[in-house]
């Protein structure tokens, strides 16, 4: 049962998260790609696709929020590698399949599910499944499944571009390799920051607030994308 003090702290954290998200409301559009990057991708070669893939992941706050939640309580490098590999496999499969097969899904709904993945992991980190629902889902399977949706989210954006058909497979593979490179760079930054944070005596206390913020951001992503979906109908 949440104490009164803890309840007040949770309300403050949620309020701060909403204020921050509102201040940056203009950038809360998952998988956004600038006009210059679009032109670069449509005319560029393998290096261009590699670069843009890495740039997308490094600046992809939805991916990074999910990865942040995934590794939050992972202390062994082997465990980190296992979960990140599962995410990378799921992400790569649907990215390649979606673009090369031409299978399309609604981008707003996919991005809403990506927001749900952020909520899921934060809720899991808070022990919500065992405390509220009385069971613990298979976390590895969940990371893989959500990885599929993250890959489809990127595929929907690539399908909007006039991608050159000459060497398309090689270019999409290069883009995916860039995405994975960007993922490693982003993950390294998160792990370094987490390493210092975990040495703090207040980490256990602050972990609760951090995951509440992550969950709130996930809900905001869901709301933003669902609003876009209904407006576009």
Oligomer: single chain
Strand content: under 5%
Number of domains: 1
Q: Which regions are unreliable across 5 or more consecutive residues at pLDDT < 50?
A: 20-31
The radius of gyration over CA amounts to 18 Å
Structural class determined from secondary elements? mainly alpha
**Sheet with the most strands, sense and barrel status:** none
Q: Look at the structure and give the mean pLDDT.
A: 84
What is the helix tally? 10
Distance between the termini: 42 Å
List keywords for this structure.
79% helix; globular; single chain; mainly alpha; 233 residues
Question: Would you kindly provide a written description of the structure presented here, covering whatever features stand out?
Answer:
The chain has 233 residues and is an all-alpha fold. Helix content is 79%, strand content 0%. Helix 1 crosses helix 10, helix 5 packs parallel to helix 8 (139-158) and helix 6 packs antiparallel against helix 8 (139-158). The relative contact order is 0.19. The model is unreliable at 20-31 (pLDDT under 50).
What is this entry, summarized?
Helices cover 79% and strands 0% of the residues.
Blueprint of the fold:
Elements: H1 4-23, H2 35-43, H3 46-58, H4 61-71, H5 77-101, H6 107-125, H7 128-133, H8 139-158, H9 168-198, H10 203-232
